[in-house]
């Protein structure tokens, strides 16, 4: 039974990754520039150690950018950027930076963290950072802590940081929800654009892209494939005698029957009107003829009916293999010509003719 092609979001995913990586690169460039300038300011104020520490972080960020430009490893870029920024913030909180304003830079962390990681990882890292900041604030006598903060500042700092973190969480959660909603909508639109509304089979557009893919596979690796172009015989008579609804229902019944007969790897699509096309990957002409013949005979003996009334349904088919055609256009043209021959020879048959038990026949020249 054929399935619709799975929607490929790899392109969208890659596009998103590229965008994240661009944002991270720009943030790294800006942070490096800030660190150089603030480091220079500290140098000018005779805070040599602080200046050198800030420049070291600027160097670390530059190395991270250069490494990413060389390897393109986004996961590593994210991880090392977060690590550098976390250590920088820990340093700023512990030393107070310039005039005890270092902790203020921590406000830049929540949006960056949620953007770069997930909501869960971001929350865990933020809680950890808050705990570390709390320890530094509470125990100024710790060996690596040189700054002391006013109680008022500590209370305001924590409450605003927690408020900002929650706000960023909510914003990121709604951004992700909207994004997932859009992806879902794009998914169903894409599916609808590739599905025939009446039979729920892949439509002509979908089949054309599958044919193109199969043809590329044939050109690349020499995998042969065949097609069978099917047409319901004298379908107009069904519409005329039993009504358009009956015709529609017959098309649906035929689609279900045909899907149950073709292999999992074969694809049957509604090619248009009462015409269907089966794509048979890795299938020779003889195998394709045998499948088409089986389908023809199953259809001829299947009790199609509409509102209790039995309807006589048969199909004709033109089969062709890529080995005999060379190009997709020629393949379709030959299958169509064979279908025409099948109709001309009396319908309810396959062309080129296949040898049956009770009717041994030679293959025609156009096979
Ligand atoms: N009910 C219904 N009829 C359709 C649909 N699509 C095409 N048709 C009808 O299919 C009929 C095709 O008629 P023709 O092209 O004359 O072919 P045919 O009667 O099948 O005769 P042969 O192909 O020569 O065997 C037309 O009457 C179309 O209106 C559909 O979706 N539903």
TrEMBL record:
Among SMART domains, the record links this protein to: GGDEF
Cite the EC number.
2.7.7.65
Q: Which Pfam families match?
A: GGDEF, MASE6
Q: Which domain of life is it from?
A: Bacteria
Q: What GO MF terms are annotated?
A: diguanylate cyclase activity
On whether Repeat is a keyword of this UniProt record, the answer is no
Please give the NCBIfam families that the UniProt record associates with this protein: GGDEF
**Location of the GGDEF domain:** 223-355
CDD domains documented for this protein: GGDEF
Q: Which residues cross the membrane?
A: 20-40, 52-69, 75-94, 106-135
Question: What keywords is this UniProt entry annotated with?
Answer: Membrane, Nucleotidyltransferase, Transferase, Transmembrane, Transmembrane helix
Catalyzes what?
Answer: 2 GTP = 3',3'-c-di-GMP + 2 diphosphate
| Record-linked InterPro entries | Diguanylate_Cyclase, GGDEF_dom, MASE6, Nucleotide_cyclase, Rev_trsase/Diguanyl_cyclase
Which Gene3D superfamilies does the entry link to? 3.30.70.270
The answer to whether keyword Nucleotidyltransferase applies is: yes
Name it. Answer: diguanylate cyclase
């Amino acid at each position: 039974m054929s399935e619709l092609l799975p929607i490929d979001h790899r392109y969208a995913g890659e596009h998103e990754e590229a965008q994240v990586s661009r944002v991270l690169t720009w943030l790294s460039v800006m942070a490096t520039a800030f660190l150089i300038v603030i480091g220079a300011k500290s140098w000018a104020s005779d805070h040599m150690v602080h200046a050198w520490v800030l420049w070291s972080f600027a160097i670390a960020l530059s190395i991270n950018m250069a490494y990413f430009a060389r390897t393109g490893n986004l996961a590593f870029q994210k991880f090392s950027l977060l690590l550098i920024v976390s250590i920088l913030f820990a340093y700023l909180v512990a030393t107070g930076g310039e005039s005890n304003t270092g902790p203020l830079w921590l406000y830049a962390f929540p949006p960056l963290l949620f953007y770069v990681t997930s909501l869960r990882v971001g929350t865990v890292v933020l809680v950890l950072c808050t705990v570390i900041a709390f320890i530094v604030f509470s125990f100024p006598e710790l060996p690596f802590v040189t700054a002391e903060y006013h109680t008022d500042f500590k209370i305001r700092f924590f409450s605003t940081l927690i408020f900002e973190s929650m706000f960023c969480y909510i914003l990121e959660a709604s951004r992700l929800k909207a994004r997932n909603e859009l992806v879902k909508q794009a998914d169903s639109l894409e599916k609808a654009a590739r599905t025939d509304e009446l039979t729920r089979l892949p439509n002509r557009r979908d089949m054309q892209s599958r044919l193109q893919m199969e043809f590329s596979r044939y050109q690349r690796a020499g995998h042969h494939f065949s097609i069978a172009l099917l047409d319901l015989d004298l379908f107009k008579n069904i519409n005329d005698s039993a009504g358009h609804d009956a015709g529609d229902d017959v098309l649906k019944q035929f689609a279900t029957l045909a899907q149950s007969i073709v292999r999992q790897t074969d694809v049957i699509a509604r090619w248009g009107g009462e015409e269907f096309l089966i794509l048979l990957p890795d299938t020779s002409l003889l195998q394709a003829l045998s499948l088409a013949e089986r389908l023809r005979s199953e259809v001829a003996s299947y009790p199609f009916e509409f509102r209790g009334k039995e309807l006589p349904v048969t199909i004709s088919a033109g089969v062709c293999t890529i080995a005999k055609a060379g190009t997709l256009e020629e393949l379709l043209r030959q299958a169509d010509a064979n279908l025409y021959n099948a109709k001309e020879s009396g319908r309810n048959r396959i062309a080129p003719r296949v040898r049956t038990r009770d009717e041994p026949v030679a293959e025609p020249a156009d096979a």
